[in-house]
Design brief:
This protein is α/β, with parallel strands linked by helices and about 750 residues long. Among the domains are: about 1-25 and about 30-110 and about 285-365, Alpha-Beta Barrel (TIM Barrel), CATH 3.20.20; about 395-585, Glycoside hydrolase family 3 C-terminal domain (Rossmann fold, 3-Layer(aba) Sandwich), CATH 3.40.50; about 630-740, Immunoglobulins (Immunoglobulin-like, Sandwich), CATH 2.60.40.10. The protein has a six-stranded mixed β-sheet with strand order 13-18-17-16-14-15, with helices on both faces. A five-stranded parallel β-sheet has the order 6-5-4-3-12. A hairpin with a 6-residue loop joins strand 27 (about 720-730) and strand 28 (about 735-740). The longest helix has 17 residues, at about 135-150. The chain is globular and about 75 Å long. Bound molecules: alpha-D-glucopyranose.
Amino acid sequence: MRPIQTIACALSLFLCGCSAGSAFREVEIEEPYGRKVDSVLSLMTLEEKIGQLNQYTGNGQATGPVIDDTTKIAQIEKGLVGSMLNIRGAERTRRLQEHAMKSRLRIPLLFGLDVIHGMQTVFPVPLAEASSFDLDLMRRTAAGAAREAAAQGVHWTFAPMVDISRDARWGRVVEGAGEDPWYGSLVARARVEGFQGRSLADVTTVMACAKHFAAYGACIAGKDYNTTDLSLLTLHDTYLPPFRAAVESGVGSVMNGFNDLNGIPATGNAYLQRTLLKGEWGFDGLTVSDWGSIGEMVPHGYAADLRDAARAAITAGCDVDMESRAYVSRLRGLVADGEVAEACIDDAVRRILLKKFQLGLFDDPFRYCDPEREARTVLCDSLRSLAREAAVRSIVLLKNDGETLPLDRFTGTVALIGALADSRIDMRGIWASDGAVEEVVTVRKGLEARYGRAKVLYAEGYDLETNRLHLAPALAAARRADVVVVAVGERYFQSGEARSKADIAIPRQHEELVRALKGCGKRVITLLMGGRPMIFDEAAAHSDAVLLTWWLGTEAGNAIADVLSGEYNPSGKLPMTFPAHVGQIPIYYNYKSTGRPESKAGGYTCSYQDIDFEPAYPFGFGLSYTTFEIGTPTLEKRVWRLDEPVTVRVTVKNTGHRTGRETVQLYIRDHVGSVTRPVRELRGFRQVLLRPGEQTEVAFTLGAAELGFWNADLRYVVEPGVFSVMCGPDSKNVKTAEFELR
Ligand code: GLC
């Protein structure tokens, strides 16, 4: 890990003007690329420079208005397009690249795509994968997605989405790693390293893009695109850490966001892009707007017109214009009128040319366009088995009364109820742009493969589109079977972009179905599907077991069969709190104590008079088919020096009768700070695989990265004082020790 302050040593910085009154730091690029970039730049006309900042979409999967292809091709051949998105396929990208090679300077195009959780082989949605608490797994799935995407001509993925969010009403929680900044930073690092590998020159890797910079997940009321208004302290302590981690990992690009942050839209926010990202953090990559977000500064009321928006964006450090066509139409005039310095455009162009050199596109613009590599890579066995591994690791066991699960050595009949159990497209989840639907293994297919077609009695239970109940056939199947498995929850399109919900409960018809099925007197196992924390208390109450299966991708059905049968003992943990009531939102585990801490006694305390303040399931929660005993954390001494790494040890034992994987979590509490600190913060986790009766000890080292925080002066500090250290299987059931920093 390269701390931010050393990243600048790779770059020498000098000041120069960008526009009237705003200084910015232009980056000087390390050799061998510095000379190459500048030699190309020196040949470019202003129009060609502006062309490099212009990004158009191909057809399909547009999240905004688009222009016709003929115009685009003509502009590509004039060197007026620097990159395209939503183009895939070795042949299709080759054809477009051939048009670029007809331009005067033959600068190759960059092809970007939202490869969020896989390409043709679909992995679990990111929030599901974050439940694995396995960073190496997430690095491997990102690498697998990159391999498949690169084989299809893609150079650049608009991932990982690293937005922290504490609001399950916001549909885009599905794309991230949940509510915790420290864990979210580790996941951001793992995914960037996975996508980019050791070098962008490797034709099986793609350039990553940390998004959306910044604090997009703090949208008021969980409404997508809504205002975000928060203190700089909260910005630095909660929302920026994953972006810092991505930059420290060498992420090649950063996408800004649709949101207005403290009165200034992220796309036109110089504090974010110039002062922090390209200034203090020394970021040498490129920034890209979100779809049309430059032009959207007009409806934001921040820009008077598209020209004003173009000026605000380029001045603030937004290098590439995704589909608002502001740069290609307005920047020439702004330079001619002296409102934008050409040096500002040069800086953006340098960043883009650098990435094209690093990707090897100047050496060979067609190196990603290999139909043979595409044919042998797409949906290959190794990617499918990785998808299955990731899927089983993403499943969270929320309830298992009377050891209902696993159904091992099961020879009876299963009633499989619920249209979601037979839906391919829903298993892919959202942002699965290319995921081959016909390749998806449904729950029905997975169970039939596991137990035999004759042993699985399927009934849809409810209409997939309308949720209209079809109870009779479902109850008939349940009465004939030995056990009932029922799939409930969200449709794949109910989480993701522009998918905010005021009510996060599963459909009431699904609750009614589970209750009715339980009335048949059989064990009921509920599969909860979706891309966000959901409220399903009625269904839970009438279930003997509940598995949270999220959206698991291509291998969903096989993975669910692996877990139901006990072939894999579930080990997932919640990366986001599951509220008991939507009125509790925003609800998160790392909250502040307040002066009147929450209390079951109510009264004059930080509580509700009408509902409990406890969540339904806390951050970090997840059961196993076995049981574990996690001891009290121990330290060799109580007092430690401020600069001395603190070592904490804790034992963990498998006290059950099945081998299982436990994620031992470590939380700290800094009891007194120069600013108030949360009642607990995740600062370590270790996964251990233990056989029945086996015990081991895990150790954690707590240094500045774990014990520090951003203070009122926006400086990262470690302060003396008493700390609690808490260990356990989740953020609630912990055992505590204390130490002091002096
Ligand atoms: C969308 C999303 C962004 C995505 C981009 C390109 O609107 O906000 O995450 O990468 O457009 O599809």
